[in-house]
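User: Thanks for the earlier help. One more: Alpha-ketoglutarate-dependent dioxygenase AlkB. Can you show the sequence and predicted structure together?

Assistant: Of course, both are below.
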Amino acid sequence: MSQIIIADADGAIVEYDPGFLDPGPRSALLAELAQVQDRFDRDRVRMYGKTLDSPRLVCAFGDDGLHYRYAGVDRTTHPWPPHLRAARDRIADLCGHPFNYALVNLYRDGDDYIGWHADKVSDLAPGSAIASLSLGAARPFQLRHKQQDIEHEVLLASGSLLVMRGTTQQFYKHALPRRRGVTESRFNVTFRHVRAS
């Protein structure tokens, strides 16, 4: 059952379904991503005038010829594996538009994280959502309004889906903070509809 986390007057909408993937498809997709774990590496990102190694591992899957650039990075895509493609198609039906790109973050344990940021939307199809599928360790996901004192936190369970629509990236930042003591890994798959260049 989907929950509304944010639905504000500025047009930001964030929805969360804690049980989106049943145990069978969830296990199959986790196993599929684990099999291609050797394709994951660190981004070299440009932030605040410095080039830094990202505090997590990353891999991209998508249709041929797509480019999605973020923080000075342009990721080469790998072809869609079957279970990831099936999840993409199901999420596309839910969101009402196709997805052609998936950026997958691997958080090896609670020391891997991502700081406060908003996702780049200039390369995305206008009006398209960003859908975030979580697999593995449950981790807290935080949202903070850029100009108001409004914060939200959601514990992202394995198999859960979080969808950010409308003006969410314009008005909110989000983060996945460090969590000492978390020893299990987590894959986070963010599906996007990237405009062909």
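User: Great, one quick takeaway?

Assistant: Helices lie at 23-35, 82-95, 168-171.
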